[in-house]
Design goal:
Layout (H helix, E strand, L loop, with lengths): L2 E8 L4 E7 L4 E6 L4 H12 L11 H11 L6 H22 L3 H4 L5 E8 L7 H15 L3 E5 L14 H13 L4 E5 L6 H13 L4 E3 L7 H10 L3 E4 L6 H9 L5 E2 L3 H4 L2 H13 L13 H10 L9 E4 L24 E4 L11 H6 L1 E6 L2
Parallel strand pairs: 4-5, 4-10, 5-6, 6-7, 7-8, 8-9
Antiparallel strand pairs: 1-2, 1-12, 2-3, 4-11
Helix pairs in contact: 1-3, 2-3, 5-6, 7-8, 9-11
């Protein structure tokens, strides 16, 4: 299959990609969220020239060649753009085969357990507990993730004492049968991370995410070696060489690639294979309800070393106003704490035409 045209539809926060192959068939994907207008420019300047008119059957090779051709510009933006190309190719392949992407990856449609993921730090422990209990009772969630420390906070808290309060407050409110996860978003030095980790362990929290600055792998490994609970990380990382080092040194107990940050499904699968060889589970990062969570659902249902649950953001328009009105139908309906992967071909979704009509449009095609 060769691509004839690449189109992007973007605003500042998110962007969709439509590819058209030589037969006229089309597939939809998504570049990574945030500064998506910049990523779209990168798509047309640095990804499209190496993708148009090129055979796409070997997707790993294609993506590697794009990075090689753009070796003077390594980094996150080119990989965020590559994600749009990759995910659109998977959609096109699924439609051509009349199968959902999960089946192309070796899995099956069906249900996935989800954990309700809070993005908020400007919420009191009591209010977070009340919100979690409401979600538990309404949607059947039996796992929740909350925030500790301040984001890249240099050992500071969102306000003094919040971390020490929220940990026992949530456990007491939700009971021992609920699974709790915590995310520090690169807040702590190793010593403070271990201190907070001990508090988490004492309250039965099972997952401690990004305890130290994510780029300091040796610091994260210190925390993982000191604690009995699972330490997780990797959401920010997009360089496959760093991923191999992270896994080889066992800096974390759970790896968390983000499909759109890392450069798409094919590159996520490469990390999953690295992790599987080391006996490490994969619980990808997907912190909003654009298409990144849908992509992750298909991956989790196909890889043998999938973690215990899907991350599912619980934030609505008060926190993520830009994610409203992206899709015609909602693929993230939760029943009994689970979401369902559709059996529709490709990704099984339709982008909202009104959103597309007001987005910024660019096109690259073979002359």
């Amino acid at each position: 299959m060769k691509i004839r045209r690449i189109e992007t539809f973007c605003d500042k926060y998110t962007g969709f990609v439509r590819i058209t192959d030589e037969t006229g068939a089309q597939g939809w994907g998504q570049i990574s969220n945030y500064n998506s207008d910049i990523t779209a420019q990168v798509m047309h300047r640095q990804v499209a020239p190496w993708s148009l008119g090129v055979e796409t059957d070997d997707l790993d090779d294609l993506l590697d060649r794009i990075e090689e051709r753009e070796h003077k510009f390594p980094g996150t933006y080119i990989r965020r753009a590559m994600a749009g190309l990759d995910t659109a190719i998977w959609d096109l392949r699924g439609k051509a085969a009349e199968k959902p992407v999960v089946e192309l990856l070796g899995g099956k449609p069906g249900k996935l357990r989800a954990y309700a993921s809070s993005m908020k730090r400007d919420i009191t422990p009591a209010d977070e507990a009340e919100r979690f209990m409401r979600l538990r009772d309404t949607y059947g969630f039996d796992a929740f993730k909350f925030r500790v420390g301040a984001e890249v906070g240099r050992n500071s808290d969102e306000w003094p004492g919040r971390t020490e309060e929220i940990i026992p407050t949530l456990r007491k409110a939700l009971g021992d049968h609920i699974t709790l996860l915590a995310d520090a978003n690169s807040c702590y030095s190793p010593a403070r991370a271990i201190e907070v980790g001990r508090m988490l362990e004492a309250n039965g929290v099972v997952h401690f995410e990004e305890p130290c600055p994510y780029w300091e792998l040796d610091q994260t490994r210190q925390v993982a070696e000191a604690l009995n609970m699972a330490v997780a990380g990797g959401e920010q990382d997009s360089d496959l060489r760093i991923w191999q080092r992270m896994i080889d040194m066992r800096a974390v107990d759970i790896v968390q690639p983000d499909v759109c940050y890392i450069g798409g499904i094919a590159r996520t699968l490469r990390v999953a294979r690295m992790a599987a060889a080391a006996g490490i589970p994969v619980t990808p990062h997907c912190a909003n309800l654009s298409l990144v969570t849908l992509f992750t659902m298909h991956v989790l249902a196909a890889i043998p070393n999938a973690g215990d649950y899907l991350e599912l953001s619980i934030e609505g328009p008060d926190y993520y106003p830009w994610q409203e009105g992206l899709l015609r139908t909602n693929p993230y309906t939760v029943v009994d704490g689970k979401v369902t992967i559709s059996s529709e071909p490709g990704w099984g979704i339709e982008i909202e035409p009104e959103w597309l009509a007001r987005s910024a449009y660019q096109m690259s095609e073979i002359a």
